[in-house]
Amino acid sequence: MRLPHRSCGSGIRVLPAAFGEQPLLRPCFVQETSPMSELEIDAVVFDVLGTLVDEPAGIRAGIRELDPSLDDPRVEQLLSLWQQHIDREQRRILDGVRPYLTSDVLDLEAARLVADAVGVDDPAAVAALALSGRRLPPWPDTVAGLARLAERFPLIGLSNASRTALLGLNAHAGLRWHQALSAEDARTYKPDPAVYQLAVTVSGRPPERLLMVAAHAWDLRGAQSLGLRTAYVARPVGDPPTSSDGFDLHADDLAGMADRLDHA
């Protein structure tokens, strides 16, 4: 799920662009709530989409493969169409308006919408576009950052992607986990607390001994609702915190996150 707000009040700084993105306006007032000496963690739980992999880049690539004649503005329009459909339908499922459907089903629906918008009716091409969500590039620091953190903590991936999609994107991006969990196991989507409970159950530890890492403030709020500790890592495609958010840690990248945890 991708929530669109990016304006957090006063106090922003402009950071360099990545992967061809426009320069990022990032809030500089992110509030940390826990002294490092008080942060005792037994396992680290990671969001995947947007936090460890560049989801929009993978979908853009799929759209360009669908119709190579599309210019960049049109690709961005179609990407927005895809994202809006996924956001809307996940919200309808969370609200009980629609029965649970896996991310595979929602991705296929989004792919059909995009294909219809450009006049492509080839079922094979639509199916290939739907699978673009499994071919997402990792951020430059992802693989090394996970390897470094895995030397100290059990790592758990926790994603709204289906089991099958999560397997594919983990393999494509080179993500290595001690455990990878899909929201499909809870038959709902984050930020439903039932999804975070999956990580608590698997770890065998109380929620306050788990650290949830995400580039999305909405995701961290969901984890907080169950008692998990929280760490915001900034990404160009994330959902930044607002002035009312208080997360335990903040870092500009995974190396910075590992540095902070080294002093915990």
Give an overview of the whole structure.
Pfam families: Hydrolase. Keywords: Hydrolase. GO terms for molecular function: hydrolase activity, acting on acid halide bonds, in C-halide compounds. This is 2-haloalkanoic acid dehalogenase. The chain is α/β, with parallel strands linked by helices. It folds into two domains: 12-54 and 137-262, Rossmann fold; 55-134, DNA polymerase, domain 1 (Orthogonal Bundle), CATH 1.10.150. Helices cover 41% and strands 14% of the residues. The chain contains nine helices and ten strands. The protein has helices at 55-66, 72-94, 103-118, 123-130, 142-150, 163-173, 193-203, 217-225, 254-262, and strands spanning 12-15, 24-27, 31-32, 43-46, 155-159, 179-182, 210-214, 229-233, 246-247, 249-251. The longest helix is centred in the N-terminal third of the chain and has 23 residues, at 72-94. Mean pLDDT is 89; it is low at 3-30.
